[in-house]
């Protein structure tokens, strides 16, 4: 039995340029590697531009965490094999793997339960996304570090670092088991805090995510926590 047959074919969706949400099987980032980004829809996904990918795993059961880690490492080995052996049986995928560098795998532990403490892990999770996307939070030219982002509610202008044709395309995949609740909740929090000029409410952010991933459905506890999070942002930006 292969990993993919264990649950379902990889499914993920790009929510904003470079930021993807998916299920456990989407750790196989071939779908991302062969897709054109929203940030450059006119360019071909196999045009040769380098991609740097960060995978953020949000799970609870150690078995599935280990599975995600193992599969992440498998992706790295396949990329190296593509470079070393030149296996071009799938030429487009081969070119994408050669141009993709997996730079980081970050794991957060969170249960998908009503009383799980989503809010306590949000600061670290949002900072991990900032770092993955290489955004400049009103800084001159360097990536954000944890100390740079003490206030989640501060209105910011997010500027990708090295946003030119020669710089790598930065990709961040946030996934949980089904890509419905935990990962979606973190993505919504990111939209509310980093793009508050566009997403002014939990409902607006959720609607946008569902446009790209219709199964998105934070559990009731997470929805309540995100509404609380939204009020905190509104207070600090007034």
UniProtKB/TrEMBL annotation:
It comes from Discostella pseudostelligera. SUPFAM superfamilies: (Phosphotyrosine protein) phosphatases II. InterPro entries: Dual-sp_phosphatase_cat-dom (IPR000340), Prot-tyrosine_phosphatase-like (IPR029021), Tyr_Pase_dom (IPR000387), TYR_PHOSPHATASE_DUAL_dom (IPR020422). SMART domains: DSPc. This is Tyrosine specific protein phosphatases domain-containing protein. Residues 155-214 form the Tyrosine specific protein phosphatases domain. It comes from the Eukaryota. CDD domains: DSP.
């Amino acid at each position: 039995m292969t990993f993919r047959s264990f649950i379902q074919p990889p499914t993920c969706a790009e929510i904003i340029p470079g930021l993807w949400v998916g299920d456990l099987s989407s750790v196989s980032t071939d779908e991302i590697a062969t897709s054109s980004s929203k940030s450059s829809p006119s360019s071909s996904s196999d045009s040769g531009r380098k991609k740097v990918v960060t995978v953020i795993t949000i799970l609870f059961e150690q078995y599935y965490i280990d599975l995600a880690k193992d599969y992440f490492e498998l992706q790295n080995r396949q990329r190296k094999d593509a470079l070393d052996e030149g296996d071009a049986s799938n030429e487009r995928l081969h070119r994408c793997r050669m141009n993709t560098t997996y730079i980081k795998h970050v794991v957060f532990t969170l249960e998908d339960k009503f009383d799980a403490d989503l809010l306590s892990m949000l600061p670290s999770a949002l900072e991990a996304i900032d770092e993955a996307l290489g955004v400049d939070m009103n800084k001159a030219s360097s990536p954000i570090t944890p100390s740079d982002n003490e206030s989640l509610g501060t209105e910011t202008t997010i500027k990708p670092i090295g946003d030119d044709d020669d710089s790598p395309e930065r990709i961040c995949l946030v996934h949980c088991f089904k890509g419905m609740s935990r990962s979606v909740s973190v993505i919504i929090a990111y939209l509310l805090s980093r793009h508050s000029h566009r997403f002014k409410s939990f409902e607006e952010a959720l609607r946008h995510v569902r446009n790209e991933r219709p199964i998105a459905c934070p559990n009731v506890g997470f929805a309540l926590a995100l509404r609380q999070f939204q009020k905190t942002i509104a207070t600090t930006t007034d």
